[in-house]
Amino acid sequence: MSGALVIIGVYLFLVGSCVASFINVVIDRVPQGKSIVSDRSHCDACQHPIKAYDLIPVVSYILLRGKCRYCKQKIGLRSFIIECIGGLMMLFCFYRFGVSWMTPLSFLVFMILLAITMIDFDTMTIPNGLVISLFALAVIQYFLQPELDLFTRMIGMISVSGIMLGLTLIIPDSFGGGDIKLMAASGFLLGWANNLLAAFIGILIAGGYATYLLLTKKNSRKDHIAFGPYLSIGIYLALLYGNEVIRWYLSLFHL
Ligand SMILES: [Zn+2]
After folding, report:
1. Are 73 and 43 in contact (CB under 8 A)?
2. Could you say which of 43, 103, 208, 235 would form a disulfide bridge with 186 (CB–CB 3.0 to 4.6 Å)?
């Protein structure tokens, strides 16, 4: 039994890191407007095309000791870390949901949110394609989990994003268009209650981080911070644990 579990674990880790390897391509190429499917991968330093056997996620980086096979230039550690995160998250989703469609779905949601997070950190924008991908996953999830009804999801789409849009009209640039669209897509995924929770968690973490930056004078009040990463953390936590948190919160009031 335990031997079989190890094989399943290794398999899931590899599947997760392969998807993450594709997400690395998305993170690198989408902000530059490059194709994510047609171009061959090549070394950033010497432009040498990378052979398929050097593109195995996690494993190739370790075998090559983090250096290009041809010019020995260091390969970015970030891609390797993201591949490891992908493998570990696939294991975690399986641990959380077991043999269920929620395992691949929640994993893919995480991967899209990870791409949004990295691209928002890099460029301060959230590509529409990623928001649309998240919405497409939400639609699939609606057919798999119809208990979360269409009305709850539609209210979820407009509640948080509507407030954010209203605030942006009053205080220009308080939220980016990408943040608003992201919360609309996550509203359809989570329904209004969990989406409110997601926004609350995101604002709490972003607020804490912004306060830290102000106090340590690393940022002035006028500097913007990318909001997408914090919203993404909120969305993912709400997807995994939102129902439990809301049940606990209501129990405090004996509801
Ligand atoms: Zn090279």
Report:
1. yes
2. 235
**pLDDT for res 80:** 94
Ligand 1 centroid to residue 64 C-alpha, Å = 12
CA distance 78 to 21: 11
Q: How confident is the model at residue 197 (pLDDT cuts 50, 70, 90)?
A: very high
Ligand 1 centre and the CA of 50: distance in Å?
Answer: 9
DSSP result, 69-100 = TTT-PBPPHHHHHHHHHHHHHHHHHHHHH-SS
- Ligand 1 centroid to residue 48 C-alpha, Å: 6
Distance (Å) from CA 63 to ligand 1 centroid: 15
Mean pLDDT of 198-227: 84
CA torsion 34-40-45-50 (nearest 10°) is 160
Taking the centre of ligand 1 as the mean of its atom positions, its distance from the CA of residue 11, in whole angstroms, is 30
Residues 94-107: what's their mean pLDDT? 94
